[in-house]
Each structure stands twice: as structure tokens, then as C-alpha cells.
Amino acid sequence: MQPNIPHGLYYNYDIKSIIIHIFTMFHLLFLVTLFLHVQSVPQNSSIVEYLPGFDGPLPFYLQTGYIGVGKSEEVQLFYYFVKSESDPSQDPLLLWLTGGPGCSSFSGLAYEVGPLEFGQKAYNGSLPILVSSPYSWTKFASILFLEQPVYTGFSYATTSAYKCTDLQACDHVYEFLRKWFVNHPEFISNPFYVSGDSYSGITIPVIIQLISNGKDMLILYVI
């Protein structure tokens, strides 16, 4: 299913409609508790320029957003996307899946391979601080950190009783990739890798098989 693209904006200037528009616009802001600066990006995504605990603007490109998957897009998968700090037009693109299952991909962003890490200091009752990681894989690759399966991190389902098996989770990741590349066609020709840790070693081979079987539909080079 391709992403729904709005055909126009319709305004109703009564107070109730204005309030609804305001809360819709800032839904993601409140959800991820980040200070966001919105630029020209795909629908349901935002550019993050500041994070709590980090001193000053982020020195790298960070995009966050949702992509709906499933028959009625009842599953909304959340992602963090960090562009390569070298040459994003040529450098590899990595999909990073954290294990668990159910561990937030923020751990990959701030604890493992991402451009952030927590500053080391004695606890004095203050909030933790974030600093740049000199060992980030984003020095030479763009990384797409995906919150999966559903209910991981900020990912959610519109049906409260929704359950997801490993195979369904793999289908969701594959559909997510197809839609993400539609929204980010500039990365279609980049070398692409599916990577992760822990439990993701069980699901990654299935995801790779889905990509291999449907690579013409995915419009993606897999290396």
C-alpha cells in the first residue's frame, strides 16, 4: 500500500477546528518530547535540531517520523534517521534493528552505533547529558533506526488488542522499507545493509529473503 498523499488543505476558521489543527500539527512534538524544527520533509516526519541534555544544536541531520504498515496501516512504526556525516549521497545506508524483541532503537542511537552517547559524570541529582560519540557508524554511513516490532518504543497500533508474530514483524519491516524509499528516493541507489543485534539475528534473515524475493518492487539495491 502506498502512502496516502493529501490533495490539498481545507480550512474552517471556527475555534474548534483551529484547536484540532493545532493539536494535530504538534502531536509528534508532544509524543517524542523533543524540540523539533520542521522543514520540508515527508508527511508524518520532522527534523530534530535539538535534544534535551545536548548542549546546542545537533551536529548531524536527524529525522524522525511514522510510517503506517498493515492492511489498514493499523501499525504505525516510528523511526530515527541519521544521515552520514561524510557523503550521504554515496555512503551506505544501514537499517538498524535492536533486539529484545521490543528494545527501543534509541539504544542503538545513544548506546551502540549512533552519533550520541551519555556523558560520564558523578550523579548529583541533575538530568543526564548527551554528547557526541567519536565512534559513531554515521561517520561513514547513514543509519535508519527502526522501532519494531509494534509497541516497541514509540511504535504503536491503532487496535489495542493487536498482536504480532515474528513473521508478521518481518512483513512490517519490509513494507516499511518500501514506503520509506518512496519518500526518500535519493537513497535508492546507495549500498544497503540490514544490521542489528541480539534477537534481530532471528528476524534479519527473513527480512533479507523478503527483500530478495521482491527487490524489483522494492526498487532497491541489496548488497
List its traits.
Rossmann fold, alpha+beta, two-stranded antiparallel sheet, disordered N terminus, 8-stranded mixed beta sheet, 223 residues
Overall 3D geometry?
globular
Q: Ranges with pLDDT <50 over ≥5 residues? A: 1-41
| Helix content, binned percent | 25-40%
In the CATH hierarchy, what is the architecture at level 2? 3-Layer(aba) Sandwich
Output the CATH homologous superfamily: Alpha/Beta hydrolase fold, catalytic domain
The CATH class designation is Alpha Beta
Topology-level CATH name: Rossmann fold
Q: H/E order of the elements?
A: HHEEEEEHEEEEHEHH
- What about the largest sheet? 8 strands, mixed
Rg on CA atoms, Å: 18 Å
Name the structural class.
alpha+beta
Description:
By secondary structure, this protein is α+β, with helices and mostly antiparallel strands. The protein has one domain (15-107, 139-218): Alpha/Beta hydrolase fold, catalytic domain (Rossmann fold, 3-Layer(aba) Sandwich). It has six helices and ten strands. The protein has helices spanning 15-25, 27-32, 106-112, 166-183, 200-213, 215-218, and strands at residues 35-36, 45-50, 62-69, 75-82, 93-97, 116-118, 130-132, 142-146, 156-157, 192-196. A hairpin with a 5-residue loop joins strand 3 (62-69) and strand 4. The two termini are 25 Å apart. The model is unreliable at 1-41 (pLDDT under 50). InterPro entries: AB_hydrolase_fold, Peptidase_S10. This is Serine carboxypeptidase. The chain crosses the membrane at residues 18-38.
